[in-house]
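Journal club side-thread
Mid-discussion, someone asked how the predicted structure for our own chain would compare to the paper's figures. Pasting it here so we can look after the session.
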Amino acid sequence: MGELKPLRDDLPPAARQLADEMRDLLRVLGITLNRYAARKYLDHGSVSRFLSGERIPPWNFVHDLLVEATEHRDGVPPTQPVVEHLMRLRRSALEAGGSPSHQVQLLQDRLHDADREASRAAARERELREALQAAQHRAAELLVSEREARALVDVERDGHHTELALYEHDLTAERASSAALAGRIQALEEELRIAHQRLIVAERRCGELERQLEHALRDEAQQPQRLAGRTWAEGDDPRAAKTAQQAAAALEEMNPTRAAGSLAAMAPAAAAATLSAMVPANAAAALQIMDPASSASVFGVMRTASALRYLDAMDPRRVPPVMDVMSPEPAAVILDALSREGAADALAAVSSEQAARLVGKMNPVRATDALSAMSPVFKHLAGGDRRSIGKADDLVEEVLAAPKRFAEVMGGRDHDGSVIRMRCADVAEKVSRVRPEWLQLFFRHCLFWHQQY
C-alpha cells in the first residue's frame, strides 16, 4: 500500500472519507494498487487518483471494490446498509466537488434511481392490471352462476321445497361472493389508478433528468475547450501548462469517447498540450477514438517524444490511418525516430503516395534503412554477377502494377550487395521512363546518395 499517494489536506470531508474507506477495502484484499488496477483492466494512474481522493470514481468501481473485499473477508456479500452508506458517501463527495463531471455523475445516478423506480412502477401496474383482469373474469363467472341459481329457484318455487331451500342457499352464497369480489375489483381499480399515476410521475422524472443530463454533458464537453480557449505551444508557458493540467483533469473524468470529442474540438496545439498533461494510456485511448484527420493534426504539432509515446500506446491498427493523412514533415520526423523495422512497418502500412512523400522528407540514411527492411523484393534481383540483370525486367512489371514497391526498389540502392544495388538502379531507371513523376518524389534521397558516392 506504500505506493498510494497521501491524501491532500484540502480534500472535502466527504471525498476524504470515501478515499479512506476505499483504501481500507483495498487493504482487506491484501494486494497492491497495481495488481488491483490490472485485475479491473484499469489504468494505474486512474485507480491511484480514485484512492487518493483526486477523482471521484464511478459507482461500479466503488461497488465492485466493496463486494470483493467483503467476500474476501467474510465470505458473503455486503449488507444493504453498508452498500447504501458508501452510495451516500460517494454522492456527498460528488456534491462537494461541483465540477461539470461531478454534476454528470450525480445526474446519471439520479437517472438510474428514477429509471429503477419507473421500472418498479411499471411492473406494479402490470401486476395490478393482471389481478384486475382475473377478478373481472371471476366476477363474470359468478354472475353466470348467480343467474343459473336464480333460474333454478324460479323453477322449483312451486314444487320441491327441500331442493328449493338448497338452491336459495346457493344463490345467497353466489351473491355474497359477487359482492365481495365487487369490493375487491373496486380496490384493485383504485390501486391501479394510483400505480398508473406513479408510473407517469416516474417517467416524467426520467425525462426531466435526461434533459438535465444532456445539458450537463454538453457543459462537461465544453469545459476543456473553455480552459483551452487560447492556442499555446506544448509546455512553453507555466500558466498555459497549468491550464492544460486543468483541461486534462476534466478530460480524464470523462469516458474516452467524450474526451475524444472535446479534444477534436480544440485547436491542435491546445489539444497537444492537454494530452501531454494526461495519463499516457488515457491520452492514447482518446487519440485512437478521434477521427484520423483530427489525430494527425494533433500529432503534427506535438513533440516527437510525446508522439512516439502515444503512438506506442495506441492500438497498432489505428496508427496507419493517422500516418496516412499526417503532413509529411512531422510524420517524417516521427519515422526518423523509430527503429529501422518500425519505420519500415509504418511505410508499408500507408498508401503508396504517402510512403513516397514520407521517404522524400525523411533523413536519407534513415529512409534507406527503412526501405531496405520493407520487403523481400531483393529475391528477384539476387544471384549471378553484375554482367547480367537477373530478373530485373520481371520486377519492373511488378513495380508498375504496384507503385508502393518503387519505394522498396529505391531503398535497394544502398543494399550491401553490389549486384543488388546495380539491379535496383536498373529497375528504377526503367520504371522512371514510364512514370518519371515517381522519381521526382525521391529527388532528395537520390541527391544525397549521389553526393555520398
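Post-session note: Residues 229-236 have pLDDT under 50 and may be disordered.
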